[in-house]
Write a structure and sequence with these properties.
Length: about 110
């Protein structure tokens, strides 16, 4: 592969952002789900309709979906980690699109070096 200076500016920027995010910030592959539940106690507010609201991390492990409860003291951190993951995937999509465009252009021209 050629040096990065030959790449389009937005692809270089995306590659730099991915590198920085992966190196500097924690991230987790998953989504956030807000759930409202009842605890089952007869005298609790949830028995009157005011359900307990909490966050869960929805992720996959070995192909199986897992819902992991997020304690309140971890909510801010986990939300940030999930957002970092989303930003990483967004940048990877930009890089992938540029690579695909290079491939389709070079295959139309009939060479690999473009």
């Amino acid at each position: 592969m050629e040096h990065r200076r030959h790449l389009p500016g937005h692809e270089r920027t995306a590659r730099s952002k991915v590198t920085k995010l992966v190196h500097d910030k924690p991230f987790v592959a998953g989504g956030l789900v807000k759930m409202a539940r009842t605890c089952g106690k007869a005298n609790c507010k949830c028995a009157r309709g005011e359900k307990h609201v909490s966050w869960y991390l929805s992720t996959r492990h070995k192909g199986v979906r897992k819902m992991i409860f997020i304690p309140q003291q971890w909510e801010k951190d986990i939300i940030e980690w999930v957002n970092t993951y989303k930003d990483i995937t967004k940048q990877i999509d930009i890089i992938s699109q540029q690579c695909l465009e290079r491939f389709t252009m070079s295959s139309k021209e009939g060479n690999k070096d473009s």
